[in-house]
Amino acid sequence: MSRNGASLVLVGVNHKTAPIELRERIAIGRDDLAETTRALAAMPGVLECMIVSTCNRVELLAAVDGPAVDPAQFLFQQFAVEKEVLEPHLYEHRDRDAVRHLFRVASSLDSMVVGEPQILGQVKEAFAVARAAGTVSGQLDHLLQSAFAAAKRIRSETQIGSNSVSIASVAVDLARKIFGSLNGRTVFLVGAGKMSELAARHLVQQGAGAILVSNRTQERAERMAEEFHGRVIPFDKLHDVASEADIVITSTGAPHPIFRREHGLGFLHRRRNRPMFFIDIAVPRDVDPAMNKLEGIFVYDIDDLQQVAAAHMEERSRQAVDAETLVDTEVERFHQRKLTVNAAPAIVAMQQKAEEIRMGELQRMHASLGTLSAEQMAAVEALTRGMVNKFLHPHMQAIKRAAREGDSARLDALCEAWSVAAGAAREPERQAVHDTRSPEPIEQAAEKLAALKGHDFSRAINIAESTRPSGPEGGFSGGSPAGRPLSAASESAEPGPTQDHIEARR
After folding, report:
1. CB of 140 closer than 8 Å to CB of 134
2. DSSP secondary-structure letter at 433?
3. Chain centre to alpha carbon of residue 204
4. Exactly one of 26, 55, 69, 323 is catalytic; which is it?
5. pLDDT band for position 132 (50/70/90)?
6. Residue 332 within a domain
7. 276: Cβ contacts below 8 Å, ≥ 6 apart
8. Whether the Cβ atoms of residue 353 and residue 473 lie closer than 8 Å to each other
9. Is the residue at 327 inside a domain?
10. Do 113 and 208 fall within a single domain?
11. Is 381 a member of any domain?
């Protein structure tokens, strides 16, 4: 269970748990992702959420207000898939296990092709859609930023991404194995998305001949055709021209197959039965499986590519082991930070109480200090802030240590000693940071005060000591800005951050 009583849950299917026939039934197109994410957010008990939907996985990630909330029910209802059909293929991870799974996905350790670079961009895109839809805030925002940092570290500290491969490159490898050489082969790219662009790059490197490009958005097709010196085919003419291609790589995101058996019969007739090769990397599939039954047409879908991808696994296994170790390290780091954040309300309450005492004592000593200039006021502020911060530091560290270690009894005892509740104070995330300057050392502030007032150093220390509260209360790095009258400062004493406060808010 995380802060504010919310827990994390991740539910989904991927290429390892569900066949493509099932994955395509719950696949979510880019145009529908925001609306579907908002629908998940409307589910009772869901506080924050996002959805990752790619050709290899559909995963729901949510912060929920209790263990009884089951996002799997959303999949059954939203896509009208029978529970007994989908449930055996689902996996579910909660809290720490959900964090670890997300980190592995973002780092491409859970991909069909381990080390492929596309998945991180896909997770970032899903996160951006959720933010735009208003379904993520503090908890998932922090989690996803940590996942992106973990993925970046894994790519920079291991060779997991060396000799970069992707689904597109695996598809091209398969075409090369079937044809022997791609030199002079005509290739038809149906769909001008990122995957098609990657496939085009690999095809050109392998010596492919003419490249045809078709896309529902003409402008995108023209851009890709220009980049690869290809020819644009209007989308409504793709069936008329497809028979010119030896290899068709299709990835449109259409909800239904765009190449059916009757199309295949026409292609073979016009090609005089010369073989034709389809690589379907779309989910839902663009090519009707019945096409594969036609003699002379060979269809490979995303699951067929997994067998080719397995050849890449052995050479990357050692790097994957190193990457898994880094994932464990990053998960532990995230967990420790989250526990520290859990202590933030108690720390903020302690700091607020100490600040009230500090300002009250300064107000009480106002007559003894006399009229102070703006510079003198700044020196007094620095002196008192520095003293109480040093006094509070070990106590705040003790609270954070108890939170990290999950010692609720010790945390409660520490809070009780300071007469604050473990869940007290306003949400730390909502408090503004007003002063990021480092507090002036006590000794330097006292020397400045002595010089300004004409007192000796010991006299300045005595003045400062007389403002120190008795008992266990301490101070806070804040107070009125330099030059503000004490009366105004005491009315609006708005604390600024200490290093402990900043760490607690992370």
Report:
1. no
2. P
3. 34
4. 55
5. very high
6. no
7. 243, 245, 246, 248, 264, 267, 268, 296, 297, 298
8. yes
9. no
10. no
11. yes
Q: What is d(CA 112, CA 171) in angstroms, rounded to the nearest whole number? A: 12
Binned at pLDDT 50, 70 and 90, residue 465 comes out as very low
Q: Is residue 54 part of a domain?
A: yes
Residues 268 and 348 in one domain: no
Stretch among 40-44, 68-72, 444-448 having the lowest mean pLDDT: 444-448
Section 16-20 average pLDDT: 92
146 with 196, same domain: the answer is no
Confidence of residue 348 (pLDDT cuts 50, 70, 90): confident
Q: Give me the CATH number covering residue 173.
A: 3.40.50.720
Distances (CA, A) of 459 to 366, 377, 450: 16, 17, 7
Specify whether 243 is located in the same domain as 305: yes
- Give the length of the chain: 506
Number of domains in the chain: 3
pLDDT tens digits, 213-238: 999 888 889 988 888 889 999 999 99
Domain range for 260: 167-309
- Token pair listed for 140: 């998932």
- Domain C-terminal end among 107, 132, 157: 157
Contact (Cβ atoms closer than 8 angstroms) between residue 346 and residue 425: yes
The answer to whether 55 is a known catalytic residue is yes
For residue 164, what pLDDT is reported? 55
* Strand 187-190 versus strand 211-214 pairing type: parallel
What is the pTM assigned to this prediction? 0.61
Task: Give the Cβ contact number of residue 450 at 10 Å.
Answer: 18
Residue 121 CB neighbour total at 10 angstroms = 10
Which of 291, 309, 327 terminates a domain? The answer is 309
> Could you give the CA distance from residue 135 to residue 440 in angstroms, rounded to a whole number?
42
DSSP-assigned letters across all residues of 108-161: TTTSSSTT-SHHHHHHHHHHHHHHHHT---HHHHHHHHHHHHHHHHHHHHSSTT
CA quadruple 103, 109, 111, 116: dihedral sign? positive
